[in-house]
């Protein structure tokens, strides 16, 4: 029998806890949140805690067959159904890697115009090495993955001068160069632990600016 499909979510490594964000995905499937969190934490125990791991959950065929019976199932049947799932893990998104390496809280608001950060080709290579472990990318060359990353970087405002590798990176506004540009020479002075708070502050400022412009 066919399964219910694939369901994706992002969970912090080694730190999964029952929460609304996880429950919204697992609840309708009848998957035990505690069982998932326990297995997930065990499988990500060697990853730095808090790293946002991409998870793909696939309910097993026997769970899919009984999905319509879940709400009226007996406690015995329910205990069986709650265990029938499997999941695969992937590394964090390319956006997470690029923003973290560039020490940028967020990408550019104006895709392809504003430059908000800078990463080097060597850093792109190391990110590509990490991403090459993801099962959807198995078999792709590192060159292809690097091209995709540089495309994502330029899309976020992280600039690139390597025309042969330019793709969709412009939207993030992050520039890719052989060496760090002088304007970003002090980039690494920003602690990565501060990026989340910087992101929240930036979002509030952008929201306030949009409200002010709307009233004008």
Helix-strand layout with pairing:
Layout: E1 7-12, H1 20-26, H2 33-43, E2 52-59, H3 61-65, H4 75-81, E3 85-90, H5 94-102, E4 117-120, H6 121-131, H7 142-154, E5 156-160, E6 172-177, H8 195-215
Parallel strand pairs: 4-6, 5-6
Antiparallel strand pairs: 1-2, 2-3
Helix pairs in contact: 5-6, 6-7
Strands, count? 6
Sheet with most strands:
3 strands, antiparallel
Structural class: alpha/beta
Helical amount among residues, as a percent range? 25-40%
Q: What is the H-and-E element order?
A: EHHEHHEHEHHEEH
- The CATH superfamily of the largest domain is known as Ribosomal protein L11/L12, C-terminal domain
Assign the CATH topology of the largest domain: Arc Repressor Mutant, subunit A
Spans of at least 5 consecutive residues whose pLDDT stays below 50 are 63-67, 69-82, 160-168
Strand order in space, largest sheet: 1-2-3
Distance between the termini: 59 Å
Strand content: 15-25%
Output the CATH class name of the largest domain: Mainly Alpha
pLDDT averaged residue by residue: 81
How large is the radius of gyration? 21 Å
**Alpha plus pi helix count:** 8
Quick one: overall form? globular
For the record, the CATH architecture of the largest domain stands as: Orthogonal Bundle
Number of domains: 2
Family: Belongs to the universal ribosomal protein uL11 family.
InterPro entries: Ribosomal_uL11, Ribosomal_uL11_C, Ribosomal_uL11_C_sf, Ribosomal_uL11_N, Ribosomal_uL11_N_sf
Protein name: Ribosomal protein L11, putative
Pfam families: Ribosomal_L11 (PF00298), Ribosomal_L11_N (PF03946)
